[in-house]
Sequence to fold (223 residues):
Amino acid sequence: MQNKQSITNSNNHQPSTACREKHAAMKLPIRSTVIAAFGLLSMLLLVHLAADAQGIPPRPEPAHAPHLSPSRFDLVPASDAIANCESMPNPAATVAVFAREDVRGVDTLDLHAEGLRPNTTFAVFLTEMPVPPFGAVQYIGDFTTNAAGRGSVRVDAIINEAFAFNNITGVRTELNHIVFWFADPNDDEDCVPGSAPGHFDGDDQSGVAAMSSKNFLPGAPLP
Fold:
């Protein structure tokens, strides 16, 4: 009986004193970290309350913080022929420009259009003028409408400070307007039959101007 009791006790042994001390020592860094975190939060709260009590205003946003509110404006038919085109009875386009150059190195332009010719590609330009002869221009993108005549494009580029510079004449030209053209010269025949091809597309063949910011004349929508 004595031997059996001895075997039973050996199988139900308790942790040694050394093990308990090691386990307790492992908990100390965790407990210290938690206490330090609570102390830091308490100190920050006290500093904030003290600043409020003294009327200290909150720290202003950095000067280079992104502009969350875009500038928005509408485009209108670029000519009477487009405004009166029976196949496009209600053309409309809205542009939003997010000024992000200071933060991201580029601005973002969002263009949404509707009431246009279905399944048709349009070429988008920044321009010196929104009416012929348009002056200096910069090709920035294109979009294709769906079956309902709706289309959109997003462009990341320098928009608000866009300009063209002629290094021969030394003339700088601001590009403060937006115009988009029928990218294919055959696509404008319903509106302007027999019109001569233009140069406002990557293949140097375009239709007439469809929508523009001419409604801002004598000003411009871009700064």
Summary: The longest strand covers residues 107-114. The helical segments are 2-11, 17-53, 80-83, 101-104. Confidence is low (pLDDT under 50) at residues 1-13, 47-67. The radius of gyration is 34 Å.
